[in-house]
Amino acid sequence: MIFLVERNPTAFLKQEYDSLVAQSLNWRIRVLQGASQPHAVVDGKPVLMLCSNNYLNLSNHPKLKQAAIEAIETHGAGSGSVRAIAGTMDLHSQLEEKIASFKGVEASLYYQTGFAANAGLIPALAGEGDLIVSDELNHGSIIDGVRLTKAERAVFKHRDVADLERVLREADARPAPPRRILIITDGVFSMDGDIAPLDAIQKLADEHGAMVFVDDAHGDGVLGECGRGIVSHFHLEGKVHVEMGTFSKAFGVVGGSIAGSRDLVNFALNKSRTWLLSGSAPPATVAACIAALEVLETEPQHVQKLWENTKYFKQQLQQMGFDTGVSETPITPVMVGESAKAKRLSERLFEEGVFALPIIFPMVAKDKARIRTMMNSGLSKEDLDFALAAFEKIGKELKII
Fold first, then answer.
1. pLDDT score of 339
2. Which CATH superfamily is domain 11-59+300-397 in?
3. Cis bond before residue 362 (omega within 30° of 0)
4. Within its chain, how far is the Cα of 246 from the centroid?
5. Rounded to two decimals, what is the model's pTM?
6. For residue 279, how many C-alpha atoms fall within 13 Å in the half-sphere facing its CB?
7. Domain boundaries in the chain?
8. Rounded CA separation 340/328 (Å)
9. For tag attachment on the chain, is the N or C end more exposed, with fewer CB atoms within 10 Å?
10. What is the pLDDT of residues 331-389, one digit of tens each?
11. CATH 3.40.640.10 fits 61-298, yes or no
């Protein structure tokens, strides 16, 4: 006799969502009415934007908008296929040549998103018999990419080069050492704004014959000469095997990329399934990405202003008594501690006309909740002073300072 199991196939959807709501862990989606810019309208309220990744305000740059409009006129609204079949347009090739030139490497490959680059390339680079060594605070897209592999995984303490060296030495001391070793790190860590010690990581990798993969999503357009990223910042050109980047942050558009040797790109476009099996980016997006790189090369004032704003905002917050953690970049956390207090600070800031979101457990440890502010080169000193006044007023109100 066959016994049928009675089950509700979808009950868990509501149950798990209700659990998140009960713990105040659910996302509340706010809606922008108009462009992402320093002065924006969110849920119908005019606010100062302090939580966008649009560091250089390029999503509103006239050259990017004009390039997108012209590409629609000449190439249409969509590409019509995946890149490997009939979806590679001359614009895609021009963008990849531009990325390679900007990064000072042989070749590059443009993906639909940065997440797609990590999820598609990492599983192709390491498999059974290999070892992936990852910083413990790496981005979720790296973690998911690693989970898709059959490789052995090891984690080293955050930015701890001595711990990384221990992992590498133990691996090489085995009777059967790994066939390949892949070291993966974020360039700039998105929660705390600190920078990976890429120079020391590269040196260790060289000693152990390991490949280095850096996710520079928050370093592109921010660090290095003319915003060329963390490899430029540490003067490691030609020594880092895989530079993964994104156009959705400082470059103001959307899309991911990898940059490195011609061998890397030839390998990736044949092995990376997220690239092979996804529709290619539309012409307007690709043209805007090309324009973004051209702006970076010819208008250095955007990166300069970003860092001026970052220095001023950080210093003023610290002088008020706020803890900005270990940040070295335009990602400036305002440490609060308790999740409920961080959410309340965010709500009050919004009421005062400042849009800055809380980062709470489980995205960070329970006692490490914070407001994560993101600087923008389009903010004036008057804008920053307005935001700082709101932080000071509400910080005192909530007894944070």
1. 86
2. Aspartate Aminotransferase, domain 1 (3.90.1150.10)
3. yes
4. 7
5. 0.95
6. 8
7. 11-59+300-397, 61-298
8. 26
9. N
10. 999 999 988 899 999 999 999 999 999 998 878 887 899 999 999 999 999 999 999 99
11. yes
Question: What pLDDT score does 364 carry?
Answer: 84
Task: Supply angle C-alpha 205, 209, 214, rounded to 5.
Answer: 40
- For residue 130, give every residue at least 6 positions away whose Cβ sits within 8 Å of its Cβ, in sequence order, or none: 149, 151, 152, 178, 179, 180, 181, 182
Among the listed residues 190, 232, 257, 327, the single catalytic one is 190
Among the listed residues 98, 208, 241, 249, the single catalytic one is 249
* pLDDT tens per residue, range 83-119: 999 999 999 999 999 999 999 999 999 999 999 999 9
pLDDT in tens, 276-311: 999 999 999 999 999 999 999 999 999 999 999 999
d(CA 56, CA 118): 24
Q: Three-state SS string across the chain, please?
A: CCCCCCCCCCHHHHHHHHHHHHCCCCCCCCCECCCCCCEEEECCEEEEECCCCCCCCHHHCHHHHHHHHHHHHHHCCCCCCECCCCCCCHHHHHHHHHHHHHHCCCEEEEECCHHHHHHHHHHHHCCCCCEEEEECCCCHHHHHHHHCCCCEEEEECCCCHHHHHHHHHHHHCCCCCCCCEEEEEECECCCCCCECCHHHHHHHHHHHCCEEEEECCCCCCCCCHHHCCHHHHCCCCCCCCEEEEECCCCCCCCCEEEEECHHHHHHHHHHCHHHHCCECCCHHHHHHHHHHHHHHHHCCHHHHHHHHHHHHHHHHHHHHCCECCCCCCCEEEEEEECHHHHHHHHHHHHHCCEECCEECCCCCCCCCEEEEEECCCCCCHHHHHHHHHHHHHHHHHCCCC
Contact 213, 182 (CB under 8 A): yes
pLDDT at 4: 85
The tokens for 247 are: 């156009």
**Per-residue confidence at 25, pLDDT binned at 50, 70, 90?**
confident
Annotated active-site residue 218? The verdict is yes
Q: Is the pLDDT of residue 2 over 80?
A: no
Of the listed 92, 98, 103, 218, which one is catalytic? Answer: 218
Residue closest to 315 by CA, chosen among 301, 327, 303: 327
